[in-house]
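Contributing new complexes? Match this layout with erythose-4-phosphate.
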Amino acid sequence: MKFFIDTANLNEIREAQELGILDGVTTNPSLMAKEGISGKNNVFKHYKAICDIVDGDVSAEVIATDYKGIIEEGEELITIDPKIVVKVPMIKDGIKAIKYFSQKGIRTNCTLVFSPGQALLAAKAGATYVSPFIGRLDDISQDGMELIAQIVGIYRNYDYQTEVLAASVRHTMHLINCAEVGADVVTCPLNVITGLLNHPLTDSGLAKFLADHKKVNG
Ligand code: E4P
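Output block (do not edit by hand):
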């Protein structure tokens, strides 16, 4: 399973990259706004800065919601760096645009997916990635993990090449459950990834090993 980090914060991306287990980055307009990035030039420069840090795919989301606008924006975004994947919302014009991009060999991430039917459309249009949002479904008392399992199953039935990129991953159990059901990728904040490190028996075991070593070595 690939690990993507879901942030536009360069320090976090650097820290995740330095861990050596990072496979890519996803961003969205809210995450860019959180970093205070505004204006096309600054946005493009920021995407470039992210691409320069990470070895892997970087999802950059279009703002346009009409077919022509999505195409124009996506074709500009991919000039930033070969690592850019055009992130397109799950709307009718988005599906048409994903089909266009896939015919042109331009990679896409279909975002804001909340149902198996939407995921099926994204795969049929030729999306590189589909992003079902777990946490936001959990927030409204629907089981986000069940959606991931359903999509993985459907894609396997027909051997779709679209990768299931589990998004809106909020904690370590989401991540582990994604691995159990066979999601291709998870995207999450850095603290979810570093949270995997923690176990009290590791801490107490290490403390004992070091104490025993010190007893005989001073
Ligand atoms: C996906 O690509 C989104 O950027 C993201 O995972 C949304 O997560 P949130 O629901 O925690 O905002």
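Reviewers usually confirm one structural detail per submission. For this one: The radius of gyration is 19 Å.
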